[in-house]
Amino acid sequence: MVTLHIEHAITDFAVWKAAFDRFAEARERAGVTRASLKRPVGDAHYIVIDLDFPTVDGAERFLTFLNEQVWSTPANAPALAGAPRTTILQPATSEPAVSR
Hints:
Number of helices: 3
C-alpha cells in the first residue's frame, strides 16, 4: 500500500468537505482504496488527508490530477488557503501493531 499524504490550510471545513465529496468518483477511478481525513486538535482551519493506493504510479498520477485539475482552479478548491504540502509514502517495514 502507498499513501498520498496531503496537508493544507482551509478557510471553511464545510465548504472544503463539499468540494472534496464532489471528487469521490475521481478518487474511485484513480484507484484510491481508502481515504482518511483528520484535523489537528484546536485548529479548525487545517486538514490532513491520507489517500491509499495499490501503487506509487497510481498515487503519482492522482497527485498530478490534483495539481492540474483541482488545486489550480479556485472553483474546484473553494476553501483552499495556500499551497498543499504533499508526500507519497510507502511502508518501511511490516511490523505488527504494538499494544499498550
